[in-house]
């Protein structure tokens, strides 16, 4: 039986689509990336993700998989010959899943909140929230990496992918608002991790370029980056 | 080495804590259920889940696992000798995870929205949203069960647990607002599934009694049921 073709419906600006791309790269899965126009979504996207109508959608043959973290787990469980994405120990898996959930549930909204904030007070509060989130993630890095280079230890894994895909938008937010979120003093582990993550062979060719994200954000005027 | 003790920090009213209890029952894991006073949370809860400060928390020895769906996966991966909770096929797993995500992301908030709605128009809209959610879940039941008695086929699994724990609050909401959400015509699959799920040996002794939930909700006056 011929291998089923793999297509990814995504958008280059989306950190969530980027997760799927990196997971596919990590597993050396040949795939086609289909850039969606988020202002006028394709029939294929609407048909493949009728509930949320959002990117990313992974099409494995004609079967769609939706939601970025679910896609990453699907890729890990389907292409088992590549390096493992989830940790092998159940407790480490639960911990990685918890922080990935936190990133989507709290950290990303706090980052978007900086751009959406109305007035200096609301903005200062949003910045504080994002910084608190990064400090929590710094602690998570220490706990999860166990002295290794990545959240997943010696090689990148689930939580690296979940968080790493936000790096571009964090940097763009720093630049656009002239603030510093990553901090040599408060988040030294993350500062080093960013360099290693962005230089990884599964990441470097697809990682967001900050300048392009800023340009994109400017064309949308004051609109925030996409939340999914 | 002695087996590590298992404790569950929960609250009887919480559908999310109920997920963990059913998963532990399904795997025949001996455990102690510690009822939290949600108005005055214990130091153990605050220490075990410092990020969200919420139930449920599973304590396996001294290691905490937080977030109900993550706990269910942890239980499945840790006590592997019991029946599998997640489907074995990666695509079926992704589908179950997607609908569980949908339940937490959309369906539960729509249910809470019925009680929180201010004015008849907002209430009608919230009811419509919840009904739409149930119709989507009816379709998911047909797709996932593949003709079996449960979402997971012939035995209860991840999505049964994720959704089944909402049954009590759905019924309580129906009763308190004198509405009908489950429907013999529009959700016939779910109507039959509810009976089978609630009668399951891992479920029947811990399932919410609708009357008790209603009584609890009344003591909170117009406050909505807990969202986690």
TrEMBL record, chains A, B:
<dbReference type="GO" id="GO:0009407">
    <property type="term" value="P:toxin catabolic process"/>
</dbReference>
<comment type="similarity">
    <text>Belongs to the GST superfamily. Tau family.</text>
</comment>
<feature type="domain" description="GST N-terminal">
    <location>
        <begin position="4"/>
        <end position="83"/>
    </location>
</feature>
<dbReference type="InterPro" id="IPR045073">
    <property type="entry name" value="Omega/Tau-like"/>
</dbReference>
<dbReference type="GO" id="GO:0005829">
    <property type="term" value="C:cytosol"/>
</dbReference>
<dbReference type="InterPro" id="IPR036282">
    <property type="entry name" value="Glutathione-S-Trfase_C_sf"/>
</dbReference>
<comment type="function">
    <text>Is involved in the conjugation of reduced glutathione to a wide number of exogenous and endogenous hydrophobic electrophiles.</text>
</comment>
<protein>
    <recommendedName>
        <fullName>Glutathione S-transferase</fullName>
        <ecNumber>2.5.1.18</ecNumber>
    </recommendedName>
</protein>
<dbReference type="InterPro" id="IPR004045">
    <property type="entry name" value="Glutathione_S-Trfase_N"/>
</dbReference>
<feature type="domain" description="GST C-terminal">
    <location>
        <begin position="89"/>
        <end position="221"/>
    </location>
</feature>
<dbReference type="Pfam" id="PF13410">
    <property type="entry name" value="GST_C_2"/>
</dbReference>
<dbReference type="InterPro" id="IPR010987">
    <property type="entry name" value="Glutathione-S-Trfase_C-like"/>
</dbReference>
<dbReference type="GO" id="GO:0004364">
    <property type="term" value="F:glutathione transferase activity"/>
</dbReference>
<dbReference type="InterPro" id="IPR036249">
    <property type="entry name" value="Thioredoxin-like_sf"/>
</dbReference>
<keyword id="KW-0963">Cytoplasm</keyword>
<dbReference type="InterPro" id="IPR045074">
    <property type="entry name" value="GST_C_Tau"/>
</dbReference>
<keyword id="KW-0808">Transferase</keyword>
<dbReference type="InterPro" id="IPR040079">
    <property type="entry name" value="Glutathione_S-Trfase"/>
</dbReference>
<dbReference type="GO" id="GO:0006749">
    <property type="term" value="P:glutathione metabolic process"/>
</dbReference>
<dbReference type="Pfam" id="PF02798">
    <property type="entry name" value="GST_N"/>
</dbReference>
